[in-house]
Every structure is written in structure tokens, then in C-alpha cells.
Amino acid sequence: MRNAMSVDVEDWFQVGAFETVIDRDSWPRLESRVEANTDRVLALFAETGTTATFFTLGWVAERAPKLIRRIAEAGHEVASHGWDHRRVFTLTPEQFRADLARARSALEEAGGVPVTGYRAPSFSIDTRTPWAHPILAEAGYRYSSSVAPVRHDHYGWPDAPPHAFRPLTDAELIEWPITTAQLLGRQVPAGGGFFRLLPAGITDRAVRHANAAETRPAMFYFHPWEIDPGQPRVARAPLRSRIRHYSRLGAMEGKLRGLLGRHAWGRADAIVAAEAQA
Q: Which of 28, 53, 65, 224 could form an SS bridge with 37, CB 3.0 to 4.6 Å?
């Protein structure tokens, strides 16, 4: 079974864990490493014959349009991660509409391809945002992957379905939550920092469980900054955030290469389309 490989394209200074210590006004003055890191991800995918979905900030697309074109020309899906990583539950419905439109415009102009997929920054669609899915459907998005069915201090909708579902009765929009793994009696994300920090076998079991027990494709995610051990350190960030962000960065690329070889992966939009026809 083919599973969805996804990349959240944002720079090291744009992550949610640092949003209280790095002001957005300072972003243009900071060292940008997102283009070089994403090119390394593209090279890894080319080496392993993997196609994927790149959920990309509009802010990045505006400043690195050639990167977005390279993603599209390599056969990957260009999808939206919003404009500048503002969590959806911090926006009004009107601000969310504007954020979606601004990001999509930048991505489509840079990539030259339609954008029909969306992922909320920090998986920030939850019970506080009942208007988000209707707005996505209204804007013509085919699917969203914006829900984390877990309990976490930064995000989470623990009561959400653990698999793809239709959140609206009057629209075809699909919500495809990230795949989770069982760890010490609780559900944790099977990708991102948890994949980087924990044994790879935990994610392997989660993918196999989704494929075999539930006969459903898994949704995996990570960030380009997670393969960059040389990135600047944010000394003012909370200790917990620094531990989560910087631990095992040097091991991530090798772990990804192994994961890519053990399971079948593809673009989220293609899998959504195939599942809709099944």
C-alpha cells in the first residue's frame, strides 16, 4: 500500500516552538537555510525514487520561487502551509481566508501548478476552529492534513478520527490526520520530532498497522530543518523546546532513508484521488 510522504517547508526560525522568542519582523534578517535543506530533501527523494507532498509557507515561496518550481518539476505536489505559520486558532475566519488566499497565490505563481492541499501550521485545526473546514471547502481545497489526533502541549484534537474523514456533510473535502503511534499507553505522532527522537520501529509499526489492520494509507511528515545539525541555536528558547528541536538532528537523514526503503510512499493528492475512486 502506498502511503503519503509529506514535508512541511519552513525555516528553522519559523517553527511554533520559537514563536515567543523570535519575532516575525526579524525573519528577513536571519540566516535562511530552508532552500539548501529542501534541496537536500529533494536529492534524498530522487535517490530513493520517492514522490511526496511539500506543504510550503507562502512566505518561503515569495522569497525562494525557484525552489518551488524545482519541487514541482521533480514530480512532487506543491501544497499550502499557510502564509507565515500563524496557528489557525489564533486567526479570525476572515484572517484565515486572507492567509489561505495569499499563500496560494504565491505558491501557484512560483510553482506554476494548482494548489489543492493544505496543512495548518502546528496542526492547529481543532475544536476551536469549527469554521476552518467550511472555509477550506469554499476555497476549493480537495483535502487538508491539519489534524493531530493526540494530546500535546502545542497542538492536538484527541477525539478526532485517526484516519481520513469528511468533516462536512455538504462538501467533498477530506481531512487526513497525521498517523499516530502507540507509546506507553498514549498516542503520539509517528512523524516529525517523535520519529527523530524515538526508535524508527515505532513508526514502522504504526505504518504497518494502518496498512494491514485498518487497510488505510499512513500520513508521515517531517521538516527540512530536521536534517540540518548546523543550524543556528536559539539560546532564549525554553529548555523543552530546545531539547525537542535540536536532539538527533544528525541522525534524521539516515533514519529517513531507511523509512523510505521499508515502505511505499507517494503524493498525498494522488492517494486522496485514488481513495475517492475506490
A: 224
Per the DSSP assignment, residues forming a β-bridge with 221 are 6
Between CA 192 and CA 181 the distance in angstroms is 12
DSSP assignment string, the chain: -EEEEEEEE--GGGSGGGTTTS-GGGGGGSPP-HHHHHHHHHHHHHHHT---EEEE-HHHHHH-HHHHHHHHHTTPEEEE--SS---GGGS-HHHHHHHHHHHHHHHHHHH-S---EE--GGG--STT-TTHHHHHHHTT-SEE-----S--SS---TTS-SS-B-S-SSS--EE-PPPEEEETTEEEESSHHHHHHS-HHHHHHHHHIIIIIS----EEEE-GGGG-TTSPP-TTS-HHHHHHHHTTHHHHHHHHHHHHHHSEEE-HHHHHHHHHH-
- How confident is the model over 181-202, as pLDDT tens digits? 988 888 899 999 999 999 999 9
